[in-house]
């Protein structure tokens, strides 16, 4: 019987085999022990970091809510202040317009007084005397000029104060817009969570942005804006009281002087009537021309629409013929005719559009001039009415009629601060 061949190599003993098995078991136990320690430390770290992260997120959310509340409070305060500034600007603008109206109203009395003095200078011989009428007329002219200076000064000061209020309003608006933007950003940050899709890692997010301010500077900035607006409003309120007081005083003085002055009005009334009639004729002719121009514009627009429809038809035919298959996609006479038709229609439309634009521009100019003529006609009619009223009023001012009329009560010259009888027009 033959024997099996032995496997070549070094053979270990049974004791060495047992020793190797024990080493493997000991190493496995040691690695498992280390793994257990690492797992326990990892679990502890996870619990600790989760708690810390949750607390930090909660604390940050609380800070965001507190900050949003502060910003919202300042936003409401600035909105209230801005609304008060707007109301004060409207009140001051109305007061300024009243002064401007009062200033404009002095133009007619000054013209009447000057015209009366000029007419009375035409007297000759013994009739050219320095009577009390001349004295009262000259006093009236001097008073009106002083009133114009005072009212114009008040208007200029009111305009400057409106600029101050506008600047304060601009500062409040800019600060308010910043507050609204900041509040929106903070509320957006407050709404973010770890599951929000728009979160991501940023480059150097902990940097301090340039131009950053401290909380104290932030509060002081809004406080300064509000304080500046309050000061401007207080100055405006005082100015409105002074302007109202001035208007009342000059109104009383002008009315007193008007009642004291009696003279006969002479006006070139027929010249103004002729100018009014000429203007009415020009307005009528302009309206007729405007009507004809509007009719032509409608015709041009209708032609333009018709040519546009023809152009659409040619475009559609050209586009549809591009679908011909194979060799039938031929640049035949129809193709050339359609192309020429498109070019002709485009040129025609351009010409019609230019002419329509010229017609519309001409019509717009006529309308503007028509409006100016209507405004001028209204002013002429108002001037004629004022002149007629002035003549009628002065013609009825007689001692007998004035004695039966109840005297006009003077406007009290006081304001909210208790001041009265301001000598604004002192000699």
UniProtKB/TrEMBL annotation:
Residues 389-427 are annotated as: Disordered. Transmembrane segments: none annotated. The keyword Coiled coil applies. It is found in: Cytoplasm, Cytoskeleton, Cilium axoneme. One of its GO terms (biological process) is cilium movement involved in cell motility. Keywords: Cell projection, Cilium, Coiled coil, Cytoplasm, Flagellum. This is Tektin. It comes from Echeneis naucrates. The gene is tekt2.
């Amino acid at each position: 019987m033959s024997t099996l061949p032995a496997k070549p190599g070094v053979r270990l003993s049974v004791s060495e085999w047992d020793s190797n098995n024990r080493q493997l078991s000991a190493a496995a136990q040691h690695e498992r022990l280390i793994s257990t320690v690492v797992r326990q430390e990892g679990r502890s770290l996870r619990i600790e970091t989760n708690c810390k992260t949750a607390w930090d997120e909660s604390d940050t959310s609380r800070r965001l809510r507190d900050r949003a509340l502060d910003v919202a409070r300042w936003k409401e305060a600035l909105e209230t202040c801005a609304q008060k500034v707007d109301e004060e600007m409207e009140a001051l603008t109305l007061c300024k317009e009243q002064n401007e109206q009062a200033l404009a109203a002095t133009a007619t009395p000054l013209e009447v007084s000057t015209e009366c003095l000029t007419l009375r200078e035409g007297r000759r011989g013994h009739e050219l005397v320095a009577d009390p009428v001349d004295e009262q007329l000259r006093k009236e002219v001097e008073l009106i000029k002083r009133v114009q200076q005072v009212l114009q000064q008040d208007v200029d000061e009111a305009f400057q104060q409106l600029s101050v209020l506008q600047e304060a309003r601009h500062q409040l608006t800019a600060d308010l817009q910043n507050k609204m933007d900041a509040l929106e950003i903070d509320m957006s940050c407050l709404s973010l969570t770890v599951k929000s899709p728009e979160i991501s890692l940023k480059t150097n997010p902990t940097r301090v942005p340039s131009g950053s301010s401290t909380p104290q500077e932030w509060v002081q900035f809004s406080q300064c804006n509000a304080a500046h607006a309050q000061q401007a409003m207080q100055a405006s309120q005082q100015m409105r009281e002074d302007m109202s007081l001035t208007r009342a005083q000059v109104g009383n003085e002008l009315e007193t002087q008007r009642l004291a002055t009696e003279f006969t009005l002479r006006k070139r009334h027929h010249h103004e009537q002729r100018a009014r009639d000429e203007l009415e004729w020009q307005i009528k002719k302009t309206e007729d021309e405007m009507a004809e121009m509007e009719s032509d514009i409608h015709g041009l627009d209708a032609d333009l629409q018709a040519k546009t429809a023809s152009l659409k038809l040619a475009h559609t035919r050209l586009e549809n013929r591009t679908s011909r298959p194979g060799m039938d996609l031929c640049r035949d006479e129809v193709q050339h005719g359609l192309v020429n038709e498109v070019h002709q229609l485009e040129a025609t439309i351009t010409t019609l559009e230019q002419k329509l634009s010229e017609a519309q521009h001409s019509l717009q100019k006529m309308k503007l001039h028509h409006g100016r003529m209507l405004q001028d006609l209204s002013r002429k009619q108002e001037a004629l009415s004022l002149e007629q009223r002035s003549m009628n009023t002065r013609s009825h001012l007689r001692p007998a009629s004035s004695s039966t009329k109840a005297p006009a009560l003077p406007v009290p010259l006081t304001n909210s601060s208790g001041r009265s009888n301001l000598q604004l027009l002192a000699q």
